[in-house]
Design a protein that fits this description.
- This protein starts with 37 loop residues before the first helix and ends with a helix.
- The chain is of the alpha+beta class.
- The chain folds into three domains: 92 residues; 44 residues, no CATH class; 74 residues.
- It is flat and about 90 Å long.
- It is built from four helices and four strands; from the N terminus they run αββββααα.
Amino acid sequence: MRRTAARLPPCFVAWPKNSMPRRATPETSMPASEPASAQQLDLAVSALSDFAPANTVGELVATHHEADGITVLQFSCRHAGYPGWLWTVALASIDGDAPTVVEAELLPDNGALVAPEWIPWSVRLTEYLEAQRKAVEEGTLSEAEALEVVEDDDLALGIDALVPIDDIDDDEDLIDDVDDDDDVDDDDDDDDDDDDDDDDDDDDDDDIDEHDLGLVDEHDLLNEEDLNEEDLTEEDLTK
């Protein structure tokens, strides 16, 4: 059996429509509350102590025995931000075995303070524009005032002017293509710079080769002069 350690949901966050917290007391009536055993009570309190501040767990308010050996214990919540919520612990006891923790969580009871259901922006925008139109028709709001409010909210074009997501994706692809072209141009510039560097290196090599050739020629000339001196010496000896 698993133990679920949940954190307190923030009071100021609106619950998405598809993930509203389920009620501690479901719409279908549960069996009448029955007293919990001392073992079940101790296990439930221990499970809550793993994640719930001790000063937020109140007295046991209800115990429900469900099918399949599940027992649900509910404790009042003393957290100031969660009036009407209940700490709820589900225990399982199969075939007379010792109970184990299935879930431990904080759930809203009937009448608890919860965030309103989430309404998509497109729906809220349509309702807002419709309310503006009716206000103008009833004379409680002038057309100039209505347009001024709409312009302040960047809604002058209405809901029909909203850009489809597919078009936004196409624009992003176009921007990516432009960036890729810029990268290619940068690579071409780098290649041109490398070619210029290679040309400079070739010029340096030409200078070195000419200088080296000059040294070789001078050396060769010196060797020829030495040979001439030796020839003269031999001629002198012959004389």
